[in-house]
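User: I'll paste a sequence; please echo it back and then give the predicted structure.

Assistant: Echoing your sequence first, then the prediction.
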Amino acid sequence: MVPPNYSRKPGNDRGAEETAAARELVGVLDKITFQNPETGFTVAHLQTTEPGTEGITVVGALAGVAVGSSVTVRGQWRHDPRHGRQFVVDTYRVVRPDTLNGIEKYLGSGLIKGIGPSYASRIVAHFGLDTLDILESEPERLREVPGLGRKRVERLAQAWREHRDLHEIMVFLQGHDISATQAVKIYRTYGREALRIVRENPYRLAEDIWGIGFKIADRIAVSLGMPTLDPRRARAGLLFVLGEAAGQGHCYLEQTELIRQSAGLLEMPPALLESELSQLVADEKVVLSWDKIYLPPLYYAETGAATGLLRLQGGLPPWGEVQVGKELPALQGDLGLQLAVEQQDALQVVLSSRLAVITGGPGTGKSTILKALILLLEKRGLQISLAAPTGRAAKRLSEATGREARTIHRLLEFDPVGHGFRRNDQNFLEADLVVIDEASMLDIFLANSLVRALPPGGACCWWAMPTNCPR
């Protein structure tokens, strides 16, 4: 967890060797400065008895650890340029406090909603060192404490159970080399069922939780003694191979290729993989189209984009028929240059179609064709939108044309709250022609979103550099 930009203060006698080596510290967490409830990331103060480490700052995923907890933390030292020397926690385990003061501080830390320092003091005064055992096995006895009614006791017991469950899953997963951050994700997804689900089928993690892939789930499964030929491992492995292919730019794999790659990765017989693949199709975890296997989001994005592009085929564009030959003298005068025959032909193709692709290497005249197209259509009062996949590409497009160009996300009006686009098939773009530069940079999801938002009567032209990227 040591960041690559680790630096050491001048004169600091604690060298890189101490930073790189994993260490273990024991102490009491006496203050939490910050804690993210979703990820469990915590900045806290740990009081230790080890010389040279008294009163240190610890950072890392410490979900379920309350002020007053006795903890053993394992990790590395680092020097933060702003905050100084810190101990970065990889794993931890909690030891229940065993003193009256420790128990009181533990309960009153905010660990249990509704129990502050005042109620914690009353509870510990009544039950003494047996307090935590009472919470664990006889929570109804808390009503013996003055001021604790039935509803508050029920809430307290529920909060204690949730805290215990979180701590249990954290300890279990960290014992199987799962980071505290990933353990928090697992608990947030499954709640009290987390331990049961992980023990029964750790491969569900790869299907259900973003960021926990097959390799992590497989490591847990192996440590739990799950057979290597378990059908659940086959399912997870097939999904992993498809996901890896998607990361390389492929929308699908042919069924035979998917089986071949999965058999090599998992060392499983193809017959078992074919059987589980059929079940994945039945469960709608993958899509079978002819002999091609897709992850569902990629399938729907690809078919959506294809359907939208077919919608643009046929019919006249919004500007009707235009003959480049008739417009050429005035157009070349406006441009201040002569168009090559190939450029004239390309311009005629674009003007005759609702959907066109112009491709070519640098210096082949794509920008000149675009300028000519814009001049012709602006004279007819048509609205043109220019966009590109990235901000840098949009800036270059704007400089080349002298017109405003935006990123595709801005064109489609990305909504950061809903994580979608406001422009879609229910709210089309207001343009007669949409021009997309650097179209070869588009992934299938963005292409689908763009095509959905094109107006039914409009046109689209894609300017693309040649690319060897797999698709």
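The chain has a mean pLDDT of 85. Residues 319 and 377 are 8 Å apart (CA to CA).
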